[in-house]
What we know:
Helix content is about 30%, strand content about 15%. With about 525 residues, it is of the alpha/beta class. It folds into two domains: about 5-150 and about 380-530, FAD/NAD(P)-binding domain; about 155-235 and about 245-375, no CATH class.
Amino acid sequence: MAQTTETALDVVVVGAGFxxxxxxxxxxxxxxxxxxxxxxxxxxxxxYWNRYPGARCDVESMQYSYQFSPELEQExxxxxxxxxxxxxLRYANHVVDRFDLRRDIQxxxxxxxxxxxxxxxxxxxxxxxxxxxxxxxxxxATGCLSATNVPxxxxxxxxxxxVYHTGQWPHEPVDFTGQRVAIIGxxxxxxxxxxxxxxxxxxxxxxxxxxxxxxxxxxxPLAPEVKKAIKADYAGxxxxxxxxxxxxxxxxxxxSALEATPEERQREYEKRWTAGGLPFMGSxxxxxFNHEANATAAEFVRGKIHELVHDRAVADRLAPKTILGCxxxxxxxxxxxxxxxxxxxxxDISGEPIEAITPAGVKVGGNETxxxxxxxxxxxxxxxxxxxxxxxxxxxxxxxxxxxxxxxxTMLGLMTAGFPNLFTITGPGSPSVLAMMILAVxxxxxxxxxxxAYMRKRGLARIxxxxxxxxKWVSHVNEVAAPNLRSTCSSWYVGANVPGKPCVFMPYIxxxxxxVRKCDEVVAKGYEGFSVA
Length: 533
Ligand code: NAP
């Protein structure tokens, strides 16, 4: 067991995903001594853990990348429109080696506790490997979708076959050839993996509690001339992306779906469906604000599902009746078509939940389906799960779990009152999962680095938001969420997927440009809303 007691650290960073990697680079650049603790054996965060078949990003690869280094932008060569998990992981490793970051990352080490010591104004951090370190600042780059959600189903532990969670997939490829496989869940992870597992398995049983909308990815190799054109003006692309609510550039039509004629709507939806990907949501400006407008797009996608799936009853069960894009829209490659295969069975558990997992399979309504392998594509305790699994204590021994009992409260998603010098990267109350994540982490880390530099220059010991500023931010987060249809569904955005979790719309949905403006204003006004001493 490692047993380190180190007092000379300036910053402890928790997590070596895209946030932690950039934090190490940037904070080292301003002369700080930084140590990163990472639970995995390698870097990459979400892309390290989510190795399930078909895992792929749904933001275009030329945009889903760092922008802090123009040289890196020029030298890295993405191969496909949407990068696969292995390619993104190679990129993360390339960045770490290119900027000599690996030597300050301690792998296979999970941070278990972080306590603030008010006398020294330092964070005391402990790990499961016995490390005890102290640092002036603690930066949680723990990711939004990193604590897996394992459903509490009777008998799960009794299953005799292999059990996998998509978010903790083995490093060696899993071959389902000849096996009977059950998959629970039909979110983005399932939608990506089902078409591939179905090609291998003897039979695949898909347990669907809620159908999800998926639009085709239309993935393809990236043509050299497309890459060349983007690289010739990468800065221009980044600038356009920064002006978009989600922080990535795509064609957005601000007009109302309701003011368009049925023919115009059909044309627009058809165009987007053919082009593929998340830009489908940009068909009209009011899709996420007006039920009636949303219904026109939802009806279009339901029509497509019926065209793609031959069996009418199966198509009916696959076609959601809910608001399109309210839960995160899935981007697929052959998902609906997979249900035409004779070796795939859709089992609708919307009316009757899984009764039990037995040693041999899955039991619903008294009927047992015997399988060799079980896949849990059941998602994550999102946004707050990983943070709250660490024993974090601020002033007066206040625990973060206690403070966030009724839901997370932050200032800008970056800090929370009572926890001085503790920063959260893409924390609740920041755009996080509603923005291009790499852009979001770069913006956060830059804000934190500037803040730390400001404090060092003035010899300041601690910073934390005032309760008043935090309350105002939380109100603003709720205010911008209210008119948006996304805040109305039982999704992981509101914590509804985890039993007992407080239902609060967690990400900031006011758009990335407004968020950046708010962060910059706070700084321009000498850290307005923060108490600095
Ligand atoms: P998810 O969207 O939360 O989906 C979990 C699925 O499991 C849902 O269908 C859910 O049903 C079901 N489920 C959970 N507990 C269950 C239970 N006890 N019984 C039956 N069904 C149960 O999780 P995910 O698919 O891992 O995706 C999470 C997020 O990760 C995505 O929304 C996306 O932001 C990100 N992601 C992105 C990509 C990409 O870039 N392409 C790929 C994968 C994931 P209910 O809907 O009824 O709760």
